[in-house]
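Here comes just one.
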Amino acid sequence: MAKKKQTKSFWHRIRFKYKLSFFNENTLEEVWSFRLSQLSAFVVLALFAFLLIALTALLIITTPIRNYLPGYLDVEIRKEIMQNALRADSLERTLSIQALYLDNLKGLLTGEMPVDSIRSIDSLARVQPDFNIPRSVREEEFVRSFEEEEKYNLTVLNPDHVPTDGVFFYKPVKGGVSSRYEAEKGHFGIDLVTAPKESVLSTLDGTVVFTGTDPNYGNVIQVQHKNGFLSLYKHNELLLKKVGDHVTAGEAIALVGNTGKLSTGPHLHFELWYKGNPVNPEKYIAF
């Protein structure tokens, strides 16, 4: 009974209202007053603290201030920082090339540098990788005589000879062979069964020369390689590259799909051509 009375006394005390009045000092007239209990004062203070915390959190979340908090830097910001670093590096290299070009040009105009020395001095300049030095008369005669002597070589007589010395072919996808190369039946490649949307990799370094959609083969992408090879990838779900893009060996260029009338399930139809003729990919790649 005493405990119940004590509890009732506590609630009565915190709910008891106090009156705060403001009087005019000269006339002693009551100007303003209000009533407030301990409970209502606590509720007002708690509400004010909650609003203050909420506004502070909202300010941090919706403004760039959040980027200065430890551990809050998100993936997009990290990606942007990396891209900016790459741009800065590319810009620095471009400026070095421009400065070297201007130095060479200055040397030519002042006569301090011979014209024939430009190629060797301008080491940062981009030159054509297929640049051929003109042959002299003696070199032409030597090449002609050498070709005449070697024309009966067994390697030359072999029409199926494909030079692959120093060439490493990447496996385009991880999967098993479901249909093998049969040129006599018009099947100029192999079918590789794999998981849907698996990454399709370029087998060699090269340049994308065709991307498009075929009614029978679905989404198709072709990559031309410098050593005379051409690789074709058919029935793709999605093409990741466009015509003119340079790709490296092992780089993802498409996703495995089930597109085209001739496709019976998720797989990759892979073809390898050498100088306009189809070759069996299994002779160069271990599937």
Summary: The chain has six helices and twelve strands. The longest strand covers residues 229-239.
